[in-house]
Write a structure and sequence with these properties.
This protein folds into 2 domains: about 100 residues, DNA polymerase, domain 1 (Orthogonal Bundle), CATH 1.10.150; about 160 residues, Orthogonal Bundle (hpI Integrase, Chain A), CATH 1.10.443. Helices cover about 55% and strands about 5% of the residues. Helix 1 runs antiparallel to helix 2, helix 2 packs across helix 4 and helix 6 runs antiparallel to helix 8. The longest helix is centred in the N-terminal third of the chain and has 21 residues. The model has no long low-confidence stretch (mean pLDDT about 85).
Length: about 325
């Protein structure tokens, strides 16, 4: 009899056949894999015909107690990633008649509080972080190039690592990226990032990548650059720069969007740049400081305008 682990493997093949992103498949491999191992080790459930609602309810309780590598409780968003992934697997198994339809509706999403994002860097802090990256070595120059492109374009880390060499249009200063739902869009790349890209391609990538490798960013072995290595390098740079907040690849996306909005960019244009479906999503990026609010208040409130007029008389 096939085990849940066997069906999970087939499910990931199914996701690949539908052109789901590498990120989604990686998430399924990890999150659903943790769930399946827990079922086997803690509940002695290895085959789908033994799965019951009580096991899923126990897993929901387990998620509420689960901690991250630093020992802190999982954030609601992280819990919901597990729920989303496991539900995806269970819905697929229910659709194919392996488990009952009931199994796909037991796990519940937890409510996520709306919080203004905290891991955003000001332009000064971002500049400080970028400057600690040594460009004297091929690895350092590649990292600086990747960070410059992230900060300049606001693309997702999966989009950055998924870029192919032919995606960059130096003449028009743009790049074609493949976003969520396999949707393509064209994003602008700033002059500084383009200069780094041009030098990286000519002097570093040309040495590392083989003639049949389409990836823009490759490691020293000539393979597409791995996410976890990139994330680890970013964290090391943040520590070296003396930045106290947690810095991840997504920090660059949020920081780019926030600076654009703070600088007066049209929200529709920023939405298109980020590849969002609606303007509503920008509320997660439009973090205004009290200084921003005071400037706006003084500039726009009619009472403040009266005060300036009176002082000018």
């Amino acid at each position: 009899m096939k085990t849940l682990a066997d069906y999970h493997g087939e499910y990931m093949d199914h996701l690949r056949s539908l052109n789901f992103s590498a990120y989604t498949i990686r998430q399924s491999r990890y999150c659903a894999g943790v769930f399946i191992r827990w079922l086997d080790e803690r509940q002695r459930v290895g085959e789908p015909d033994r799965l019951r609602a009580k096991h899923l309810q126990a897993w929901q309780q387990e998620l509420s107690k689960k901690t991250n590598p630093t020992g802190r409780p999982l954030k609601p968003r992280s819990i919901n990633k597990y729920v989303e992934t496991v539900n995806g697997l269970l819905k697929h198994l229910a659709k194919t008649g392996v488990v009952s339809q009931q199994m796909a509706s037991v796990l519940q999403y937890v409510k996520e509080p709306f919080l203004l994002p905290g891991n955003i860097l000001t332009h000064d802090s971002m500049t400080r972080l970028l400057r600690v990256v040594s460009t004297e070595t091929p690895d350092g120059y590649r990292l600086r190039t990747m960070l410059e492109v992230l900060y300049s374009s606001g693309i997702r880390v999966a989009e950055l690592l998924g870029l192919d060499i032919g995606a960059v249009d130096f003449k028009n200063a743009t790049a074609k990226v493949l976003g969520k739902g396999r949707k393509e869009r064209v994003v602008p790349i700033g002059k500084t990032a383009l200069q780094y890209l041009e030098s990286y391609i000519r002097a570093i990538r040309a040495v590392s990548a083989g003639p049949d490798q389409p990836s823009l960013f490759v490691d020293s072995s000539g393979r597409r650059f791995p996410y976890y290595t990139f994330r680890r390098q970013i964290k090391a740079c943040a520590r070296k720069a003396g930045i106290s907040i947690e810095v991840t690849p997504h920090t660059f996306r949020r920081s780019c969007a926030t600076e654009l909005l703070r600088g007066g960019a049209n929200m529709y244009h920023v939405k298109e740049l980020l590849g969002h479906e609606s303007l509503e999503t920008l509320k997660h990026y439009a973090k205004l400081t009290i200084t921003d609010l005071k400037v706006t208040h003084e500039k726009c409130h009619p009472r403040e305008q009266e005060e300036r007029t009176a002082q000018g008389d």
